[in-house]
Specification:
By secondary structure, this protein is mostly beta strands. It has no helices and eleven strands. The chain has strands spanning about 5, 10-15, 20-25, 30-40, 45-50, 55-60, 65-70, 75-80, 90-100, 100-110, 110-115.
Length: about 120
């Protein structure tokens, strides 16, 4: 059973920083592509950042240069460092994982709220 546990959300002023963490309770951490989506009620879900199983990262244009995704293999954790936060970054952030040999199955974290005040 795959479990993703997120933490690190909260309230921050515009221009501030937060770091989200996603601990993956999985056997083959290296084999998972992982990342973060965000969702605002009434809007479409947005893919924010991805770290691929084979290496490499991708970012939404809206966060390039401000957010950085990384992995800690020893702790099976993915981080999302968010700097220069803007009010429009306010959303519920969800960690996800997809194994490279089972792309039809996506696992999700419980979500963590990020609120950026102006």
């Amino acid at each position: 059973q795959v479990q993703l546990v997120e933490s690190g959300g909260g309230l921050v002023q515009a221009g501030g920083s937060l770091r989200l963490s996603c601990v993956a309770f999985v056997y083959d951490f290296v084999g998972y592509t992982m990342g973060w989506y965000r969702h605002v009620p009434g809007k479409q879900r947005e893919l924010v950042a991805t770290t691929a199983a084979g290496g490499g990262t991708n970012y939404a244009d809206s966060v390039k240069g401000r957010f950085a995704i990384s992995r800690d293999y020893s702790h099976k954790t993915v981080y999302l460092q968010m700097d220069s936060l803007k009010p429009e970054d306010t959303a519920a952030y969800y960690c996800y994982a997809v194994h490279r040999w089972d792309s039809g199955k996506t696992y999700w974290g419980q979500g963590t709220q990020v609120t950026v005040s102006s």
